[in-house]
Amino acid sequence: MQEMDTGCPVYALPWPPFSEVQFPTLKEMASQLNLAIRKIQPRGPYRLAGYSSGGILAYAIAQRLLDQDEAVSFIALIDVVLSSRPSRVSPTQMVQEVLLESLEPDDERFELLERFSGRSSISQFLEKAQKIGVIPFDRNLHNDILTYERAIQFQRALDSYQVPSLPIEVYQFYANEPLRHRARSRKNSIGPEARSPLRGGTEF
Fold this sequence. Notes:
Elements: H1 26-40, E1 46-51, H2 53-67, E2 72-78, H3 91-99, H4 108-117, H5 122-131, H6 142-160, E3 170-173, H7 180-183, H8 192-195, E4 201-203
Parallel strand pairs: 1-2, 2-3
Antiparallel strand pairs: 1-4
């Protein structure tokens, strides 16, 4: 932002670890990231920002800090969409929405992937996308599969999080121009709240 003080350091927080057996709740993620934050800055006031689903995680981190009697002087939510109900889209549909952003609706591969996504797993969908040239042929899909599966786990944690009312002022920011994939008109398009786990980020 142009208004941001250039002397203000910004730290991007990493994804919290996930287990294949049991994924953490958003509160548990916030507790883990709270420890990482306090290693760098032991005491408040803290300033937090998060993009998309990362904004909800930033809010949960603020909740944790306030519970510890720390001051949170600023929290920014960037393109955050809160859904009143759990996401109903499948994991493969979430991946589909990201991959199809690189294609135009009249591309034959676009229609092929749309039809294929309804009856495939994430790994099968990515393998199909690679086979038809949407993903480079020399790319190792293993890390992509892990990343998408982790994002799905994060979506489940978002769905179960009860957003509390906090005694802090929240600043909300939105893009001036709609993203290209939001402007498309497709009967199978999914909502932004379902896409967000694949894009979210949190900073302080």
